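input
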Amino acid sequence: MLARMKHQRENDGIFEAASGSCDSSAVAISRELPSNIVLFVLRAMVGVNMACLHGWDKLHHFSSRIGSVADQLNIGPKYALMLTVAGEFVGGILMATGLLGRVGAFLVAFVSALALAATYHGSAWHERELWGLYLAGSLTVLLLGGGRYALDSVVWKKLGKGGGGAKSAPPKK
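output
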């Protein structure tokens, strides 16, 4: 019986040591790092492409582009273009930098959904494919956040609000 108890304690020690190593911060960081890099790449690619390839031209040639954007919400051609510029350019920049990244992702997702639902309704899928990808990427960032490498996490960390996974220091006694 004593031999069995001794054997049980040895096995418990082995399992405790093994489970303790899984809870180490090095393992947690190594699991967290790839997802933060993926979120960074997704945010940067979707945001920069949306801002540069779609929003910049509409912003740069705003007065000549009035009426060229479909007015899906019946708010008038000027306001429809303003909404599109806000979603494509401003939303893309916010999403790419991660500063108010979820707000930017919402704006990009909103404009992408409008483009899919109204502008390209009835057209072949290959003509709508790009907007579907923008919608999927922006919804992913909207749901998951910008990750550790977003400016939001840096700003909140500097303000002491614990952004980016950092915990604030305990109060001194």
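quick obs: The helical segments are 2-22, 25-60, 62-65, 77-97, 101-119, 125-144, 151-158.
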